[in-house]
Amino acid sequence: MSLPTINPTTTKAWKALENHYNNIKDTHLKDLFSTDANRVENLSINWNDFHVDYSKNRIDQTTKKLLIDLAKEVKLDEAINSYFQGDPINQTENRAVLHTALRAPKSSTLNLDNKDIIQEISKVKEKIEKFTNQIINGDLKGHTGKKFTDIVNIGIGGSDLGPAMITESLEFYKNHLNLHFISNVDGDHVHQNLKKLDPETTLFVIVSKTFSTQETLSNANTARTWFTKQAPIDAVEKHFVAVSSNIPNVTSFGISKDNIFPLWDWVGGRFSLWSAVGLSISLSIGYKNFELLLEGAHEMDEHFKATPFEENIPVILGMLSIWYNNFFNVESEAIIPYSQYLHRLPAYLQQGIMESNGKSIDRNGETIDYQTGTIIWGEPGTNSQHAFFQLIHQGTKLIPSEFIGFKHSLFNDNNHHHKLMANFFAQTEALMNGKNKAQVLQELNNSNIPQNKLQQLLPFKVFEGNKPTTTVLINKLTPKSLGALIAMYEQRIFVQGIVWNIFSYDQWGVELGKQLASEILSEIEKSEISEHDFSTKNLLNRYIC
User: What's the pLDDT at 93?
Assistant: First the structure.
């Protein structure tokens, strides 16, 4: 079954939203609160240990109803069923999209091509668990009999961003193993990492579905060369493992078949941390915590699959993005986690969201004449408050922002945590209310500033407010809550892609640059520049000379 192919701009709900936008676009959030005593209750969702408050968004009950109508009119419910039952919704590659199956419990079943893939997944999980325990406990050792102390993950894109983000986010739960991530083909990156390592106690995890990705294979070969300068060639199979579907390429590299962890073509790279790509995660925090990560994601999947749209967190968040992107013409959204542990989360979500929904061709193969995709950016609070919050507060751009915070800190240091969360709550309030001229004038009068200086300063201290924010307040940062949070964003991506009538799970846009890079590399190595535009040719000549 294929996905519906409905141009959203042709729907009744879209037309109604256009009219509604004209009526509400200038309404201030303060007025929306003053006219609806139950606004917070009506525009917030409690689920497990998540509280999602979206009442500080520039919507009312009519907006919410019309956005839900749009989701229904584009047949989001049918698309969700196709997604979870394994229909080939990645139609340009004729693949199912089943990263959700990776976190399903062993007791479930899902047949794909007459195979119960849950059982296949369970076998791989068992292999991950066994290998993880053997490395952590020191049962598997390096070629000189020493226990491993360092794990190096070599991959790029989803084979790097996901594992790196999760291991850093869950550093509180890590064991004695030291994790390193090598991704960039920049030689300085790989050599800088290698010089810190001892080959006798280092395990390399090479992550590449095809085992042919230029960046990953270049770094893997450099790591192997470094290793074999100090160890015999047959020691490679004790120090290198692979996550890949290309067994011939992996074994040619020198990795034992026993140390290959398989992948499936229905797992997209940017959604692959739940698979054997997460081996580094499991090694870092232990298999039990890795399972809790999967469990949290599965619970969010079940919420997304079964909850009416009106109380469905990914649906609501996805439709809010549609509202701002397509009606307010907003181009970017900020994601601000108030936890230093989550400092890599915005970068991780950039790939997930922008690579998935950065498309200009719809599911009918037609050029799109409406906006899709949003630019995602952010940094942790409170650091970000001292960086780009000036733009959000007083700049000319409307930037909806999502605030992610936790009720409890991991080290139980309330002195710090209360200060952190005071800023968390204060910023969303300040962005909503702003500060008008009367308030500024009173403050300035109380400060005894001379009247001539006061009038000059007055306009610079006024804050318009009316800046939309969504607050996600979670009890505590745990493997389970992090799994649910990541799955929440994954399903939000799906919602937006369905509404925009695009294919979210291919990424043809990254292929052209790769093709040209391969051709240009050959020219650089031969010092023979072929035909290019004048600028590129000039740059290549300067580089070679």
Answer: 94
Detail the DSSP E strand segments found in 300-347: 332-337
Cα(316)–Cα(324) distance, rounded to whole angstroms?
Answer: 13
This prediction's pTM: 0.96
Alpha-carbon distance of 264 to 121, in angstroms, equals 10
Token digits of residue 243: 């996550």
Q: Which of 288, 280, 263 is nearest to 210 (CA)?
A: 263
Phi, psi of 18 (to 5 degrees): -60, -45
3 state SS of 246? coil
To 10 degrees, the CA torsion angle through 13, 18, 22, 27? 60
Question: Catalytic amino acids?
Answer: 355, 386, 514
E-assigned strands of 104-251? Answer: 111-112, 115-116, 150-154, 178-182, 202-207, 240-243
- Strand-strand pairing, 111-112 and 150-154: unpaired
Model pLDDT, residue 2: 82
Structure tokens at 388: 């780009």
Distance from C-alpha of 132 to C-alpha of 138, rounded to nearest angstrom: 10
Return the structure tokens found at 175.
């064991």
Q: According to the model, what pLDDT value does residue 510 have?
A: 83
| pLDDT the model gives residue 51 | 98
> Closest Cα partner for 340 from 273, 431, 274, 406?
406
Distance (Å, whole) CA 250 – CA 269? 18
> Distances from the Cα of 100 to the Cαs of 84, 296, 330, 494, 502, in angstroms?
7, 12, 30, 12, 20
Specify the pLDDT at position 512: 83
H runs (alpha helix) in 50-186: 61-73, 76-85, 117-137, 158-169
Say what the pLDDT of residue 1 is: 65
The two three-digit tokens of residue 431, written as one number: 């962005």
Which residues of the chain register pLDDT less than 50?
Answer: none
Rounded Cα–Cα distance for residues 268 and 141 (Å): 32
